[in-house]
Input
Amino acid sequence: MSYIQSLHHIIIRTKYSENVLPNEHSEELYRYMWGYIKNKKSFLYRINGMPDHIHILVGIHATIALSDFVKELKTSTNPWIKNSGKFPDFKSWGKKYAAFTIRYQEKDTVIEYIKNQREHHKTESFKDEYRRLIIENGIEIDEKYFLTD
Output
């Protein structure tokens, strides 16, 4: 038997980082995403976000590639968001995303970070947060493509 723990802090954003996911309907969207995650035999630790982006801490099942997981999550939520009637300005998700592996011992810290998104964004813009997290995780940013869609 293989023993695998694959925790990822994933950030997906709306196309052009538009504020089209109103907070008053966000819980319904998060529940829908949770259903998708459970159907993929993965484990949701925390989900939260803002009108222009969502943070997810998830343990992805060992048989699923991260890129497939994110692509299918965005693909499956797209029609639900559009047909729900609660997000009338939503066009689609941005093409790019960020995902960072985390150690199991860091799980509680990341859960708290995600839980406190609304408070956190009173002092830091999404663009600054996204840039900071990418750099903190040792990834070089290509400015030509940074937040372009």
